[in-house]
Amino acid sequence: MSYEKLPLEPLFQKIDELKPQFIERLERAVAIPSVSGDETLRPQVVKMGEFLITELTALGFTDIQRKELGTQPPPVADANLQLPPVILGRFGTSPEKKTVLVYGHYDVQPAAKEDGWATEPFTLVHDQAKDILYGRGSTDDKGPVLGWLNVIQAHNELGWELPVNLVVCFEGMEESGSLGLDELIEREAKEYFAKVDQVTISDNYWLGTSKPVLTYGLRGCNYYQIIVNGPGADLHSGVFGGTIAEPMTDLIKVMSTLVNSDGLIQIEGIKEMIAPLTDKENALYDEIDFSVDEFNAAAGSETCLHTTKQDLLKHRWRFPSLSLHGIEGAFSGTGAKTVIPAKVIGKFSIRTVPNIESAKLDQLVFQHVEAEFAKLKSPNTLKVELIHDGNYWVSNPFNDSFTAASKATQDVWGIVPDFTREGGSIPITLSFEQKLGVDVLLLPMGRGDDGAHSINEKLDVPNYINGCKTLGGYLHYYAKA
Ligand SMILES: C[C@H](N)C(=O)N[C@@H](Cc1c[nH]cn1)C(=O)O
Ligand SMILES: [Zn+2]
Ligand SMILES: [Zn+2]
């Protein structure tokens, strides 16, 4: 696609010049362990929200609001646990300009050095030789969230006007199901978000490690827990082993019926809900620039279940998957503790795709789990429940916003981006589209091997800096579209 280039070189140069400050800003953000899934760290999530308020204020944002969302709904250990606030802010209110809402999240996944990190997860470490920044949240999603703020700083220092009005909406519960955000969007659709023309999200990754992408689809995520209760307390396996029904044995039996070793979900009724793959759609997979070898390198193994890029991508984007995540209450330390856990909670999630209905899926999951447990004729008790769910999202990428992002990407990276889908989930995406009645664009900053949710999460410095240029350039091209 040929297009008329905008004179953005001064902006790009300013972003290069501000690199040390941008890295330092990310360092301060990563140092706050804002893990939404750990109730004991909730004050840190709130602190991270306050950090953003301070930064927004210093940059000249107006109408900054800290929206409280009330208490966290069950299941939760502390019934009075407050949800972290959603942070809103505006930069510009000109009626002559378009308004872009940028959404991002300031919470992160849990991380501990003992999990195998080479560095402290909540200390941003700049590996100068590789020019890589390591730290939890560097790519998911603190780097991209700060990217938008960095763009404003660069404009301020150049004395440039921002070409659009910007509205920011940053939440602290994305990694835990975006609880309370749907209702906030509903309430603010005709209030704070009234003038929004476009929602843009930077919270996913390139498909590989060298080619930028723009993303038009996400899978959804329904997260469940199975609670098995047995004896009144943890017991000595020498004294009680062989005499009582063990909760862990029941749980493992039930969990092993959910998915087979080929990754195929064993719960009846789910595959019938998947939208059929059309020939036209099938052909799209041939065009995508993607290397199975690079994928294996990102996974750090040769354990991939699929050999062709087409199959692999379909299983990542287009078909549902079920992952077993862990067992709360089970012995997991080093050594050889001879305990029979009294209560264990198995966690698993299903990534959903069109046209899987969330409520119907819950029903199928509950029926399956209860039926499998009944087969065991165990005297223990079992309860299965949904912890949170989030919708899948697929859009039409042929609009002004995707075109603007493509131009900015070409300016910065010198290459036409691929249009991709994402296997992960951003639960709120569909709500923005439907409740505000606008298009949504996903404009990723990091690479496919960044290790989001994993150990040694990273963001390459060129991705951070060029990512800021791309976000800034995008706003300029979108303003002119
Ligand atoms: C893609 C995004 N950066 C992300 O990591 N999303 C999470 C959202 C989620 C859903 N349930 C729990 N977390 C993900 O895809 O796991
Ligand atoms: Zn994220
Ligand atoms: Zn994440």
From TrEMBL:
Cofactor(s) demanded: Mn(2+)
PROSITE patterns: ARGE_DAPE_CPG2_2
Record-linked Pfam families: M20_dimer, Peptidase_M20
UniProt cofactor note: Binds 2 manganese ions per subunit.
Keywords: Hydrolase, Manganese, Metal-binding, Metalloprotease, Protease
UniProt keyword Phosphoprotein, yes or no: no
Record: residues binding Mn(2+) 2: H105, D140, D203
Chain sites annotated for binding Mn(2+) 1: D140, E175, H453
Site (Important for catalytic activity): H236
Domain Peptidase M20 dimerisation: 217-374
The family this protein is said to belong to: Belongs to the peptidase M20A family.
Protein's name in the database: CNDP dipeptidase
Native species: Suhomyces tanzawaensis NRRL Y-17324
